[in-house]
């Protein structure tokens, strides 16, 4: 079993395509923004910091989207959009897009409101 799907030889190309897409949406953004001597981008302390926050949201929701989209796979194999790996790839892309939108909305809200409130700033100091 790979990604909750049996690895039949007839569908190994689809499984490889899905794993390549998932890896490119989760691993490559972190490799692009993180120096190899500093892994602070993976911590949750600077979750809204640019660009590690965007990569975190994108990676987390891409994995969650691909996991949740597996519901469509066993429903009916007669539909073209329910065949493997289409639901997994669609959920992965939708989750990554939603992650970027959530990060952009959160960043815009923080910048428009002027950052953290005085009460929260005192806690952070």
TrEMBL record:
Subcellular location per the Swiss-Prot or TrEMBL entry: Endoplasmic reticulum membrane
Entry's Gene Ontology cellular component terms: endoplasmic reticulum membrane
Membrane among keywords: yes
Broad class of the protein's primary localization: endoplasmic reticulum
Pfam family, one: PIG-F
Protein origin, superkingdom: Eukaryota
GO terms under biological process: GPI anchor biosynthetic process
Transmembrane residue ranges: 12-32, 84-113
InterPro entries cross-referenced by the UniProt entry: GPI_biosynthesis_protein_Pig-F (IPR009580)
Assigned keywords, A-Z: Endoplasmic reticulum, GPI-anchor biosynthesis, Membrane, Transmembrane, Transmembrane helix
Pathway membership: Glycolipid biosynthesis; glycosylphosphatidylinositol-anchor biosynthesis
Membrane-related topology note: Multi-pass membrane protein
Name listed for the protein in its UniProt record: PIG-F domain-containing protein
Organism: Macrostomum lignano
Organism classification: Eukaryota, Metazoa, Spiralia, Lophotrochozoa, Platyhelminthes
